[in-house]
Structures are given as structure tokens and as C-alpha cells.
Write a structure and sequence with these properties.
By secondary structure, the chain is an alpha/beta fold. It has 17 helices and 6 strands. Helix content is about 40%, strand content about 5%. The radius of gyration is 31 Å and the shape is elongated. About 30% of the residues are buried. The structure holds adenosine-5'-triphosphate.
Length: about 425
Amino acid sequence: MAQLQKRKPSRMTLSPRVAQSSPRISPSGKPVKRRTNNPWGGMNVTDPPRSSAVRQRSQASEKRETRFVPNSRKKRDEKEKSTEPFKALKMQRALSPISYGQRTAIKKTLEERDTFDAFGLLPDVEVAVATQALGNMDDITPTPIQRLAIPALLGNEHQRRRSRSSVSHVKEMEQFLLAAETGSGKTLAYLLPVIDAIKRAEVQEKAQKEREAADREANRKANDLELLSPLLSNAPHPSTGRPRAIILLPTSELVSQVGALVKSLSHTVKFRSALISAAYTGKVIRTRLFSPNGIDVLISTPHLLSSITESDPNVLSRVTHLVIDEADSLLDRSFSPLTPRESKPEAVDPVFGNDTKKPGFISEKTLPRYSPSHDAESARHSSARTARSRGHRQRTLPREPQSGLRRHHLEHRPRSG
Ligand SMILES: Nc1ncnc2c1ncn2[C@@H]1O[C@H](COP(=O)(O)OP(=O)(O)OP(=O)(O)O)[C@@H](O)[C@H]1O
């Protein structure tokens, strides 16, 4: 008993050699490798494993890399891709395809566009922002995604380049992907240019009609004896059931949310909008879509729109702008038969490939909460959209039969103007 008490230390003490690695030298003079094939083998390692150590490149090798060789950059990227050990760095590189110089220039431009007046929107649209969309705010300034996306979607930025390069007069469908964080104002970033475009188209169409009416009148006067066909009193409005812009959202809740904003803007800008989803009865949907007053903007879920266009493809005949909100959901596998894939724009060409219109295809995607390359990505007109909460959205995705805005419907759609 007395012996045991003597051996017990008064408190735990560390060995004086605890921080020193035991020099293990093999008989041949080389250091002996630590054994790692047991559960504790990787513990207390003070030297980095050789496999992940950064290899020092010789000066000659660096010189060789910087010399200009066609495709050398591509090859180097491929090489780096295959040897890159850090996934996070890889992701960052994928999101930052522009140089620091370009980033600085974009940031400067962003600072200059500090009001909604700077975009050249129609006066009514500007007023609608101040009175309806952001009416409850004192200081109204566009958010970064709005500063980048609105001029790009309005076509202001590329107008000069397009006019220089447009050898052919056929207008091609333009695609934009807006990407920014949740709550960054992506909805307004795509809505304002779309509304601006449909109002401008309306003005043009009205002027065209007036010219045609004047021509007809002049003709009538010249041929006084010609019989005129009587005006049809019960003819439907030419835009009945034929919207100019379609906004697709994955759920009825989002249709109501974005629809409410669109409706509020329409009070000032004066355009006709309709929101349809599975939350409404068939009668309500028909009345809204085929209203005798016509329709300019349709907000819908893809499933509902696809089943409508199956029976009446003419609904798509006047569309010049298609917005795919929550693009990360709508372009995923569960919706892919319904939504045209960004990577396959030919799927929507038959509808939008009309050389009298300038069609647009906008999709919106929500970026992770913080991405250092957010600005850079946005600068490439990458993105927009928002999830209230990703988990919630997944749960509420409708699981209706997906019959489709299928390609053959688009291809066989009659091309009426
Ligand atoms: N320029 C602005 N200044 C202040 N608030 C704004 C501005 N633009 C939009 N908002 C407000 O920010 C909120 C979020 O906007 P919005 O829903 O468009 O963001 P979002 O990026 O689409 O978000 P989410 O990814 O969740 O859909 C809204 O309440 C909207 O009124």
C-alpha cells in the first residue's frame, strides 16, 4: 500500500521530450517513414505529406509556360484542372472567368449607375419603380445585380457591338443568365427590362397599325367604288390568349408572389398581366388567359402552361420574352421535359426565331449566400433568382404529370404574327 502511494504522481506531467520527434534513422542513414497503417498513424504529424506539397517550378519551366503558343492557355488550364488538389480553388476559378482589370472596370461602372434614371427606361416604368415596386422607400438606388442586368437586358451595352457586327438582318434570340444572392433584387432586374420592351413593342405596333389604316384610307379614296369588308364587331382582341412575355416559376406560391409585383407595376405602366397556376380553377385560368382585353405578361408554372399549349399552341405565337425564374429548379431533371434548356436554345427557336421581333430568354439562378466572384459572374449577365428557402422549395415542387412544353409543340406551332 505504501509502495503504490509512492508511485502515484501528484499531478500529470508531460515528458520533457514531448515536442521532439524521435529521430529514426535506418541503418542506411535515411529517415524511417512513420507507419500510417493503423488508426493513429496520421496523428501528431509535423511535416506535410509529400503528395500535397507544392512543387517548386524551375525558372525555365515558368518561362516556357509564359511564352505564347496557340492553345497554350487551354492546355495549361487542362493541366491545372487535372493536378489541382483544392476543390474550393477550382470552384472559385470557375466563377471568376474575368480578369481583375475587367472587374475593376465593372465596379467603376456600377458606381456610376446609382439611380434608376441611368438606365434609359421608359418614364412610366421609372415612375412605377418609385411608386409601386419600391414605393415604401425613401432612398431608391438599384442593387448591384440591377445595375448590371438592366442595361444588358435592355440591350444598351451591346447595341454598338451588334450594329457593327450585324451583317445579317435576322435577329437572333439572346440569352441571359442572371445570378445573384437571395434578396438581391433579381426579380425587378428582369421585370423592368421585360416590361419596358413590351411597352416599346406596343408603341411600335400601334404606329404600324396607324400607318396601315392611313394606307387603307388612301386606297379607299383612290378606288371609291371598291367594296370594303365590314368590321367584325365580335372579333377577339388580337392579343387574347397570346402574351408577349412569359414568366415561368416552379410553384403556385412564387407565381402569386411575382404576379403581385407585376400587377402592381401594371397600375402605373398600363399593361395586361395574368397569373395562372394549379391554385386556380380551370374557369379562372381560362378567363384570365383568354380575357377579351388581351394579355401582355403571363406568369405561370411550366406544367400548367405546357398542358395549355398542348391543346392551343397559338398561346406562344406572340411571345418575345421568356423568363425562367428559379432556373436552378426549372432546368433540373424533374422539369427538364418542360423547360427549354439553356444549352439547347434551338428548342425555343421555332417560337422565338421570328425576324420581326427581338426575342429574349432570361433565366435566373440564386447563388450561394456569399461568393467572392459574385460581381464577376453577374457581369457576364449571369443570373437571377431566388429561393425563399431551398428546402421549402424542394418540398413544394409540384409532382404533377409532366406532359410538356415539348419540342414538337414548338416546332409545329403555326407562325402567326
Ligand atoms: N433597388 C432596390 N432597393 C431596395 N430594395 C429592393 C430593390 N430591389 C428590390 N428590392 C427589395 O428587395 C426584396 C427582395 O427582392 P427580390 O425578391 O427581387 O430578390 P431576389 O434576388 O429575387 O430574391 P430571391 O432570390 O429570394 O427571389 C424585395 O422586397 C424588393 O422589394
